[in-house]
Please model this.
Amino acid sequence: MNALPIDPALAWESLPALFQGLQVTVFLTVLPLLIGLALAFPICFARMSARRGLALPAETFVVFFRGAPLLILLYLVYYGLGQIEALRNGPFWIVFGSPFGCAIVALSLNHAAYMVEVLRGSLLAVPHGIVEASEALGITRRNIFLWVRMPLAIRYGLKAYQNEVVSFIKGTAIVSVVTITDLMAVANSIFEQTYDPFTPILCAAAFYWALVNVVRIGFALWGRWLGRHNEDEAVRAARAQAPLGISGEVLP
Amino acid sequence: MNPLPHSLDLAAEPAIAISGLVKLFGDHRALGGVDLTVRRGEKVVICGPSGSGKSTLIRCINALERLDGGRIVVNGIELTADEGTVQDIRQEVGMVFQHFNLFPHLTALENCMLAPQLNRGLSRAQAAKLAMAHLERVHLADQAHKYPSRLSGGQQQRVAIARALCMEPRILLFDEPTSALDPEMVNEVLGVMEDLATGGVTMLCVTHEMGFARRVADRCVFMDRGAIVEEGGSREFFDAPASERLRGFLAQILH
Model:
């Protein structure tokens, strides 16, 4: 008898399939993260605009897509939009006709809504005096944004961004409900074939855990590099000596 | 900062001409029609109790505050709401703040390099050379590669002065530059400011450092409740104040 709830032989056999599922999960994480972030910038600017005509639609977008449960959003995009005749015959059917397209749209909209708020909070955290000092130096608004506000906002918002990315990765598991064979779907199908509830699910959990921790380590390194201006002189010197240290001066 | 040769034809024109300046914060009248003219190369100290409008006055000059009435002309450029005009004036005017406001993510050197690189298109090497020259001028060349969080308050304020100088402004505004400093660091900052005063740069300085005002100022201005109450050469200002309010103020701060 095996005291462990998992069957090592099955786990070993499942690895290739799980790896394939993992690739799908990574793909469905990276692409919406990029698209969502790209969407979040203009929406955030609109949200922070003094003009109601811009701020109100942006705020509505955030309220709607942050409020809508991801699963319902995915159903609406996948099953709901397909009901629209014009869309089925239009050029966008390339996107909305495939479960991948729908998943990417739903995940991107969800991520964008969250990122608008992360971005806004980070930009608002930049001390006003520092922005004023840049203005007094005659730096243009665009350059102040690129070289002063954004570099500081990234530092203030890094933890919130990391939280959002980590919960987003795990949130992608719901795409299995629209026929996409991501990591979760692979684990599920192994379960259905073998009636072993523990081995595939625990293996999938380990994969998610590993993925999240790769992200965590990435963020930790990024944060350390960004935070180098707050580091102790001695710590920095020691790190510069270390073979794996992150050193060198680079303008952010 | 040497007097610029091409400004000679404009020499008769004042560096800063302020007339009828009004600034409101909601219902509060922070400045109620202030007139002040600063000649080129003149060193003017503004003092007064807190809330008297002295910071607001100098913040209007480089458009950090929008004016609600009156005119400001800086080196012949009239301040308007137009963004281009505001940028032109800001190129002429450097500013040093009470709380330094250095860029925390950049080293002292990079703090000084940023504006010349972005505004004047200097290369990294050119900007670094310029920045180093000005850091030397404030005696901080050896700290150039440190981040602001590693510098003392006095050092940070001197970096802020060097950062303003790197844009080679003809007018420098100081907004209580030593008020946020520990007492032992005040003199290193005042020393740098006195050095600057020996050059041709126009200085407008909000400060309560009366020793500095006596040594450096060509003229002192006393403000109270949004208006200029008294102004004069630094000697008569301190030794023979005309108004009761200035006498009261000086008695309080000189102990």
Notes: Chain B has one domain: 15-253. Residues 15-253 of chain B form a domain with the Rossmann fold fold (CATH 3.40.50.300). The first helix of chain B runs from residue 54 to 61.
